[in-house]
Predict the structure.
Amino acid sequence: MKNGEWEIKTLQEQEVREIFTWNYPGEYSVYNLSSWETAKKENYGILQSYKRENEFFSLYFQQKFTGYFHLYQPDRDRVRLGIGLAPEYCGLGYGKICYRKIAEFVKMNYRFRFLEVEIRAFNRRAVRCCEKVGFIHEGTVKKNMGAKEVIYYKMALSLQEEQPEGTEP
């Protein structure tokens, strides 16, 4: 999908290799990926060609690789989104645009009613970004990450067009 200066493509292996070089500073370092060798040994989904070709997409802005996203289906009405922006694009307003472009892409290519995300609770920047796009809070999820429990906010965005009052969906 090409839309103005933005383009969404199937994620390619050379882009995946670049993702593994990204280093996020400070508290955001939890988003740094392990080494390429560890990922291969542990068979990360992003390295599996079938999954990469069907679930992972790259984001380009002005022909520059800006980020990627992963779509997978937790149930028939929803698609879950995982997203990563290159560190140099974080905190500059690109996230809001990316979420909107991804929502548009999902509406055009799938029949899901909701786009959902789970964001680490400490990441107020990403939470505010999603709120500005129209995601609503649905609760919290606790996940064990190694020896540590991590709290995530579960948020969802309706992908349905608003119905005029008095009409059935």
The longest strand covers residues 64-75. The chain is about 25% helix and 35% strand.
